[in-house]
């Protein structure tokens, strides 16, 4: 497997798995990764990772009509980065009635079939080989490993949780996903539990996307983090998902690259793909 292919799979895989584990209505990550690879040509910087039609930009595309391929101009949805494209994909598939057979379908072969054989007959793609192409990518690269829910049950309370949705808690440690073992060290802060996956390693989702915590994360920290000198090219960890202008963003990665530094304003991202600008006090060098 080439470095480009491996990077593509790992990038989309992490993003897709986060959506898969945090949503009540989901699509298998293996299907998401394979579609992104096929639609974009394994290009993380493609204008459209998933080829979703809609308002955005116009491009030439190939469609299969009456037994042969034709070139047409069509409009596609555009997203600023891979993370938002994956969120958009999950929103689109789970929110479009014709793809009901894909949603919460644990059989990747049948889920891919239902992308084409939809409830109203309108397929995701017109290519007669689309189903085989997507399934081939899934099987060639063993993408079903991203579909495993390897969370461990909470035997101490038989699947129940000590905290509830809507409860505001103090926490000193945070995780990127419900099953992550990689602890992150945020600034001491407060957050609201907005979703619970009972039995998960880190069952509590904070503020609809800040990150995930478990019971051991809750409480005051005796060693709050402090800001430090950060330079372009450094790897950093996000401590607080507040943008420089006061907004918020979802944390999809354990580490980000520093793209630009101007005073206390730091632009972070993955490679040269910008995620956001953030105050230096909200990140730490790793």
From TrEMBL:
<protein>
    <recommendedName>
        <fullName>Mannosyl-glycoprotein endo-beta-N-acetylglucosamidase-like domain-containing protein</fullName>
    </recommendedName>
</protein>
<keyword id="KW-0378">Hydrolase</keyword>
<dbReference type="GO" id="GO:0004040">
    <property type="term" value="F:amidase activity"/>
</dbReference>
<dbReference type="InterPro" id="IPR002901">
    <property type="entry name" value="MGlyc_endo_b_GlcNAc-like_dom"/>
</dbReference>
<feature type="domain" description="Mannosyl-glycoprotein endo-beta-N-acetylglucosamidase-like">
    <location>
        <begin position="4"/>
        <end position="147"/>
    </location>
</feature>
<dbReference type="Pfam" id="PF01832">
    <property type="entry name" value="Glucosaminidase"/>
</dbReference>
<dbReference type="InterPro" id="IPR051056">
    <property type="entry name" value="Glycosyl_Hydrolase_73"/>
</dbReference>
